[in-house]
Amino acid sequence: MGDTSGDISSYWPFDALPKAAGKLLSEAALELELDHDTWLFHQDDPADALFVLVSGQLDVYQGDPPMWRKRLAPGACVGELPLVVGGERVRSGSIRAVGSCRLIGLGYSDVRRLLTRRVFDALLTPVTERHLARLELGLATLFGTLPLSMLVEIDGAMIQRHLQAGEVLFNPNETLRHVWLVDEGRLEVLVERDGQLQRVAEIGPGQPVGELAVLIGGERSAMVRAVRDTWLRGLTAPTFEALLMRHPGAALGLARTLARRLVQANQQPVVVNHPRTLALVPAQPGVDLRGFAGALVEQLSSDVAVLGAQQFAADAPGAVSLDDDPALRRFGEWLSAAEAEHDAVLLLVAGQLDAWTRACVSAADEVVLIADSGDVPPPTEVERAMLTGESPGELVQLVLCHPPGTPTPGDESVLMPWLEARSQLVFLHEVAKGDRRDFSRLGRGLFRS
Known about the structure:
six-stranded antiparallel β-sheet; alpha+beta; 15 helices
């Protein structure tokens, strides 16, 4: 490639190289610019170069038809994996510019030609470590420890799927044709008992679903559906079986994984009844949601995160609109990270039915209405949307906040108008503002402990 002033040595993974090696690569690199919506390359194109994103953003798509996978920020390196796995390879995804982008490109042949074997091996170390960490998420759950080249082959064969909250992945007695891994989001496993569906398990990021039924050719006895917006990677049954035939190591790893799971399995179903994420919805203007959440958290022994739209905007700049798939998936990743670090999450929802509110009530385990006692207002726009099915989420709990010093439980004549105006409510909680015992009792009620 031609001469350029682009200094690729200041970007990962080249920043760990000796200065002389970095200078040689920078001299061989080429700067290029992409206009908005221009494709850098397409899936299955020959892979002969890598790129570093200097400015702008790039969207990654995979599958046929292409499905959005993730968004890359400045500093990201694209297409470096063939340096590690070698051989004649093709692109595993498609890359498109979001706005105007500036990149530095470097041919694989130039990297191999300009670096000594020792320096080249040093370059591969951080690349290998990063990709092993990403690909082993979920794949290691199925197959155990595998070489990077095999993980890349499996990942390249996977298809993508996006489920909206409430959408069914498969129904009881349905023959399974795919093995799925959850990338982001959450699934619930439901079985029918006494004419009602009962949740017996949840499946989160990195966990597989359907592998045993595909392996033995059986049918599922349970329904699996999305609790919130969920993104999955999957292998078709023929691809899954062919993979095991070609790679005995993967088959052995799968056998060991399933054996461990059977040994550890509890014969009794696990009923999940402890919500981890609650969306707090104001019943009228002026409700101090953050003050309420703070008072509640003070009385909980668990580690609870209180998150609002401003926190999301700070953590994920550029994704606050939540009006497209990349932003919505970024919200899912952000919430999953918070759930992994805390015992519970409280989402503070706006009073209006905007994109933030829809995302929160869709993702929450339960939606809780927060109200100040007094005159009973009519159902809000958010409540009506959930009742009519216009917005996902189900409102079954109400917390009525009384002035400080008010005895609880309170006067039935105060409570009944709320229940009559909102017949869908199942639980009604009362607290007096500033009463620590009330908020401690409320915490046990909301989290069923």
